[in-house]
Structures are given as structure tokens and as C-alpha cells.
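2024-03-11 09:14:02 DEBUG pipeline.ingest accepted 1 chain
2024-03-11 09:14:02 DEBUG pipeline.ingest length=71
2024-03-11 09:14:03 DEBUG pipeline.predict start
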Amino acid sequence: MRQNQLDLSSSVAVKQFLLDRGATVAGVAPAPACEGAPAGHSAEDVLPGARSVIVFGIKLVSGVVNWPQLI
């Protein structure tokens, strides 16, 4: 049980770190959660031995996302 408590506090700390620096959303997942990813995109493909995956997103203004020059 002690290990799970450490994992949880580490996950919370990582998420808070990202949110404090401007991320809109952040999350941590176990690496096996990516097992169904396309070839070359699983956590093990990117970093052999990975145990966790950290993801975050930043909200963009819709005008930037729909900018015609980006298409």
C-alpha cells in the first residue's frame, strides 16, 4: 500500500507542476495503458522501460486553430 500512496502523491505533484506552468489539463497513466497504440506510438516504443506516461494540453484560441494559413 505504501508504494501506491507514493505513486499517487507523485502523480498529483507532476500534474500540479504542469498546471502551475500553464497547462489546461494534465494526467499520468501507467505505460501499459498505451498498449493498443499504433506501431511506434506506445510508451515502450518511445522510451524502452517506461513505467508511466505523462500527458498535458494547453487550450488554444479557436481563431488560431482555424487559421486558414495552417491548412
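2024-03-11 09:14:41 DEBUG pipeline.report The radius of gyration is 16 Å.
2024-03-11 09:14:41 DEBUG pipeline.predict end
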